[in-house]
């Protein structure tokens, strides 16, 4: 029987940070659904927010986070996040990540405090974390290992049942503590910036174990992705571009954001997204950087410039067509400041968790930070309780009833996933209506899937729609119109 002290599900910034900090506490195993680096973390562009300059203050970062989150955040949790940020940056620097000397600006921040390496900061960060993990004798990584159900006994989590790629069976993996770090759920929507791995799996596991969610109605839609679908996702055009002066223009090439918010391009994401959504009803919307200093843009956005070329666009010669996309889940499984969930033995960290730091709308560059700060906090809490842990060794005699999984042909699964994506995008997207949500709930439930992967998507969508229906006034990125526009 497979067993480990600390079982981490997910290999993004949250999972690997937790793994790294636990490496001297006990035996750590990281399961990941695909290969290492197949995580949203790898695609993060902008960077990590942290107060590290003389002009900046913790209070300013806290206030900016609370303002972006429509004050639905928990101030103590936000303080924990913000005060942990400098240490988180130093931790990455110790691993070898080399941040630029000057911080960048992003929407919703009152001062430049985004620390980045290039315009693909996530890749640098994840590469360094992966290297550090691979060097640690106490950490094992199992790729192509998908967690599909928690093992619970006497109201506590004892590990997971997992399925290896290409297998139709499941096997148990027991642990003293299980740490869920499965990331977001963007793939539940037809248009998303998220990788294929981000389909809300962790939330489905939690729902099936009877856990409740908080703030699941707050799905952040990023305003500026390239309006060209690519293998199930849309390539993001970082917010930092707007920090450097990029403009968003309507089909006639005119700026319009000031009509919606005096901060214009630097307003928080929900405001910019909705403005673009409404403007797109008149025609396509574009990002325009042509009048900016070419050398500066090339220097600061080498990867985005290159990637756009591959898509056939020249940032310096033409306007780039953009679309909002589902980007980030602000809510999830509620956790305390140490990542503990209501199920003993289970922690949650990163995008799958609701640590109450984002409120109703996440401030840019606070997500990677959340994984770093809360990942460390979980490890510290586990280390502190280790003396108690040692008495409770893994019980291999508990009854194990593996779930019976049904797998339908891949084409059928993909067709169901597409149907769900369209329903969610149309009815549970940027602008919601009570009628649309009701219809979505019915349509999602009516999909006759038997495959567990689709049933997992259905349960998460169902919970999200219910949460959206329960909040009948707009707040942050949950925008509800009384009737269809
Ligand atoms: C394009 C893009 C750009 C972004 N830019 C920024 C930015 O500049 N700054 C910022 O702060 N945030 C940014 N974000 C948000 C941020 O990247 C994510 O919120 C953060 O990386 C989430 O980290 P995570 O570790 O929780 O999840 P992820 O990095 O998504 O990792 C999840 C892991 O869980 C695994 N997994 C999923 N389901 C299972 C399962 N059933 N069994 C086993 N393993 C599973 C996945 O394979 C993956 O390894 C961006 C997001 C995107 C998509």
List the helices and strands and how they pair.
Layout lengths: L1 E8 L3 H10 L5 E4 L16 E2 L8 H11 L6 H21 L18 E2 L5 H15 L3 E4 L2 E9 L2 E9 L6 E10 L20 H8 L10 E12 L2 E4 L2 H5 L3 E3 L19 H11 L5 E4 L5 H7 L1 H9 L9 E10 L3 E2 L11 E3 L4 E2 L12 H18 L1 H6 L18 H18 L6 H13 L5 H19 L15
Parallel strand pairs: 1-2, 1-8, 2-5, 8-15, 14-16
Antiparallel strand pairs: 3-4, 6-7, 7-8, 9-10, 9-13, 11-12, 12-13
Helix pairs in contact: 1-4, 1-10, 2-3, 3-10, 5-14, 12-13, 12-14, 13-14
Bound molecules: flavin-adenine dinucleotide (FAD).
Description:
This protein has 14 helices and 16 strands. With 485 residues, it is an alpha/beta fold. The chain has three domains: 2-217 and 330-391, FAD/NAD(P)-binding domain; 224-324, Flavocytochrome C3, Chain A, domain 1 (Alpha-Beta Complex), CATH 3.90.700.10; 410-470, Fumarate reductase/succinate dehydrogenase flavoprotein-like, C-terminal domain (Methane Monooxygenase Hydroxylase, Chain G, domain 1, Up-down Bundle), CATH 1.20.58. The strands form four sheets. Strands 1, 2, 5, 6, 7, 8 and 15 form a seven-stranded mixed β-sheet that branches. A five-stranded antiparallel β-sheet has the order 10-9-13-12-11. Strands 3-4 form a two-stranded antiparallel ribbon. A hairpin with a 2-residue loop joins β9 (219-230) and β10 (233-236). The structure holds flavin-adenine dinucleotide (FAD). Flavin-adenine dinucleotide is lined by residues 9-15, 31-34, 38-41, 43-48, 122, 146-147, 181-184, 193-194, 197-198, 201, 236, 328, 350-351, 365-369, 371.
